[in-house]
Amino acid sequence: MSPSDHQGENTIDQGDLGWLEIPEDVICGSGGACVKNKATVSWQETTENDQVFQLLPAEIGAATRQVTSNVSSLNVLEVSNTDAHVVSTYKLPPRQNRGVPPDMFSPQGKVKNPIANYVLCKNLAPECQTWVNNVESIQIPTRVEEALKDPKWAAAMDEEMMALHKNDTWEVMELLKGKKLVGCRWVFTIKYKVDGSIDMYKASKSSLSGVAPLEAVLFDIDGTLCDSDPIHYYAFREMLPEIGFNGGVPITEEYYIENFAGKHNDDVARILFPDDFERGLKFTEDKEAMFRRLAVDKLKPVNGLYKVKKWIEDRGLKRAAVTNAPRVNAELMISMLGLSDFFQGLVIGNECEHAKPHPEPYLKGLEILKASKEHTFVFEDSVSGIKAAVAAGMPVVGLTTGNPEHILVEAKPTFLIKDYEDPKLWAALEELDKKSGTGSGTSRA
């Protein structure tokens, strides 16, 4: 416990004072004030680094004051009264030598910096204590050599390689003449269950270094820039019963993901009204209008979006948005996200001869930017979008913002991430920087 814990009406007990090594003749009052002869205790800011404890006596019968704390700076503990004068000064020892907090909750095993020294955990729910224990006691490797020494991480690496082989993610072939080998970085993470216990050790290979030196990045919009799938799902769920679809029973989220997510409205219209395409198109137009009304209040960027935006801008990379959404929707979402000046091109699937999953929209994006597919990668969140980018010959970073991992992996993305904060993405971008010989401030535009 520290002085920042004592604000307002909080009471300081003698145990806390003992930890701070305050002299024994300073005692705690029941009203929340720490007093010596009914003097007042307060923490004040000093400009020096040393810790000074000042004792100032109070006249008998003087009213005590509440304990106050200055959270920004906790250097001087002063016992004072308006009529008091300084009688002694006590200099506290260096902070690291002031004693050890009580053993509130200690993770099993030995760790370098036990969390019990800094955080009170005894009031956490059992599942949270289990999670804290695992976080503190399990070492996540940063290098392959470290991982191979632990049978659990080695098994996770074997599982990842078998999955890559099973899904035909990579093709084994002879090294072409004049081509260089590129590295691929392992990323190690742990997935936890709801009760805080370990679900699985996860090792995955993430590499974008094959596109070095990087020229451009292409983005889908729905589900990739913003978490818009819940809004689309809500609109479908509300409107489909009105036309008697599915017997008037609202569709499930699983049905939406399987049949509508990421698809062009022409395809959606044919699914809904196979014998009346024009009626299907009218329905999709009305649904998109409802989406736009809802998006005004509900649209939010995918976590970490602006971090990756800055990474791209710092390197002067070309960028474009490629989407199956109607132009009015696309421009609305880009504007609401503050990205109107960020993108140098916008490709609408409905304005191409073929929409996603055909590669044409992504090939058109490359054409607009005058970039090569060999030095460009794509961010996508849907099966149709990933298939389109892969067919266009570019590596794809898939986001699991709206679609389950097991569905997306069938489209063969280079790797999957939860959002733009995912360590897997930044490990790949760091490796890409090394291969490109670039970094912040390097321009390619």
From TrEMBL:
The keyword ATP-binding does not apply. It comes from the Eukaryota. Its cofactor is Mg(2+). Pfam families: HAD_2. Keywords: Hydrolase, Magnesium, Metal-binding. InterPro entries: Beta-PGM-like (IPR051600), HAD-like_sf (IPR036412), HAD-SF_hydro_IA (IPR006439), HAD_2 (IPR041492), HAD_sf (IPR023214), PGP-like_dom2 (IPR023198). GO terms for molecular function: hydrolase activity; metal ion binding. NCBIfam families: HAD-SF-IA-v3. This is Haloacid dehalogenase-like hydrolase domain-containing protein Sgpp. It comes from Pyrus ussuriensis x Pyrus communis.
